[in-house]
Amino acid sequence: MKKLEKIDLYNFELENGKQSVYIPLFYQVFGQPIGDAPVVVVNHALTGNSNVSGENGWWNDLIGENKTINTNRFTVIAFNIPGNGFDGIDKNLISNYQDFTIRDVANIFWEGLFFLNIKDVFSLIGGSLGGAIAWEMTVIQPEKIQNLIPIATDWKATDWVIANVLIQDQILNNSKNPIMDARLHAMLLYRTPQSINQRFLRQKTDNFSKYQIENWLQNHGIKLKNRFQLSAYKLMNHLLKTNDITRNRNSFLELSKNIKANIHIVSVDSDYFFIADENRETYFQLKNNNNVYYHEIKSVHGHDAFLIEFEQLVEILEPIFYKKTKQIYVTT
Hints:
Blueprint: E1 5-13, E2 19-31, E3 39-43, E4 63-64, E5 69-70, E6 75-79, H1 102-115, E7 121-127, H2 129-140, E8 145-151, H3 159-174, H4 178-190, H5 193-200, H6 212-227, H7 230-241, H8 252-256, E9 262-268, H9 276-286, E10 292-297, H10 310-321
Parallel strand pairs: 3-6, 3-7, 4-5, 7-8, 8-9, 9-10
Antiparallel strand pairs: 1-2, 2-6
Helix pairs in contact: 1-2, 3-4, 3-7, 4-6
């Protein structure tokens, strides 16, 4: 695994006016040294981390040598959302999770980029929670990003997202086995009934003690429990409902007029969490005053398709990262 680097932030003022005395910002750099190549910033999702490429890299299908995001051509930087626990240091976990918002995380990430003397980002990309942070980062610094690529996400938390965040929060704070139980519920948001039914076909395990779907869900819960801290889960889940780039600002259309980036909205047609209809509406609102493109992954798998349908995602992303040889297109 690439070395985990750290930036120390002191006396950071949160959106709610409170001050966080110390925030360690951990990150990893892949590909070319900083300053030698265009920068791609990758934001991780709820249970993700900065290890996007190489050993155990969660986006190895997209990022690496001669991959779509080619580490022979780009400098790839991935920050860890503070408090996600990837550094393995318990004292860096965040207990006052309700004090933090996506806007705070976006500002923290910009502090990190400025510390690294990065003033221009070729592409800012993220899926789910990471994509929501990317929207916020773009509004904060609308002239510093060339390509915004939010995937399976939205610029706002809908009532549906807020409702499910509440259910997750209740499970995390009241269950006797909170991480596992919350994960079971979440997995049914990230997939679709069609995906589940086609995969398991009501079959039982080899010893006929339970259905395969039950075994699959419990294994997901156990795996997350073994690698994720409860406080991290509470924080990441809470951040989702704080997603709103218009909060205490102008309207969405007014904010969008300041964005200089090409905006590539990537949705999943079967996403039950960040539904495609919302992304299509965003596209139609923006298409007259921005360089905005809409792409749609066709999949039975729902929200998690951005981690499954790599061939489609590569087809969407390659024209963005290889502009000299391919033209940007719109998938509708």
